[in-house]
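Running low. Invent one:
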Amino acid sequence: MRGVPTERVPHEPNSPVGCSREQDCLSESERRVAPTGDELLGWYTATNTFTMQLRERGFPVILLGIIIVLLIVLAPQIFFIVPQQNVYIIERLGKFNRTVGAGLNIKIPFFETVAAKVDMRTRQEQFTIDAKTRDNVTVTMAIAAQYRVSAQPAANGQPSGVWRSYYMLANPTAQMRSYLIDALRSSVPQYTLDEVFDKKDAIASDVNQTVSGLMVAYGYDVVSTLITAIDLPADVEQSMNRINSAQREKEAAQSLAEAERIKVVTEARARAEAMEQAGRGIAAQRKAIADGISESLAVIKSSGVSAAEANQLFIFTQWTDMMSEFARNGRQSTVVLPSDFSQTASMFEQMLVAQESKGDDEFVIVDEGAGA
């Protein structure tokens, strides 16, 4: 092989003086990346040597090239990557062969195909249904069903949950919706309208257990069933609002009546206690008056006045005190005055005569002597 002619290159700063080859003028980092002529010559020599060895052993080089090209072309058909939370179903010649999980996997090209890509994450299906309660009220319920493909492996001759979810149902969401609607329409009529609102979670739990037992046979786990809303007809809603309003007004009236009763009872008790105390005061007052009168009569008697004269004097004194009090108050009323204080027994008759002759609110003096 002929040698490569050398060529002098201009001198540059920080480069070896008098570079005989361009490679000698490259920096240290450039020399690491760019192959040298000796390296290229070595690779060429090794390739020729390997080719000669294959020819000596009878292996055609063209076939080797074809194999390499086929491997490059068929690599996407052989190697595939499954994402996290996914399971691929592999079929061989149209028949189920296996399931593969997340990561790098291999299949036989042309003979094996990816039949389905199953998502193992939890999904949600929302829909509305109409149902009738026990008291014949039609309600519209919004349902949210959360479900996922069962991760149960194959065991005891039973296929895995992934196999059942793909091969046993063509439209699993529609089937699950039908089960839920049927279970709800069978459960809601057992309750009244008020009970549907109060026991909403219990109804959803019962429906979820019923549907879960049916869907697990098809490779699906129903995680939960939620009743997110209950809508009523407009007239029923207005009637319920009026009932609630009347109920609150009734409770308010009962509360007010109870408060009034407590107030009246309390006031009556207070008046009774006050009257009791007043009676005690009056009794004490009368006792004191009686004691005073007794003492006064005793003093009058000791002065030589007879008992009859003392009584008349006492009555006259009481009468003058009453007239003084009447004058101070200034209110009009009927007052009966005896014309003769010695005939006090006829006072009741004078009062009757005064009421028959004159009306109320008059000041009347009845003179017995004039009547005679």
Q: What stands out?
A: The radius of gyration is 61 Å. Residues 312-371 form one domain. The chain has eleven helices and ten strands. The first helix runs from residue 28 to 33.
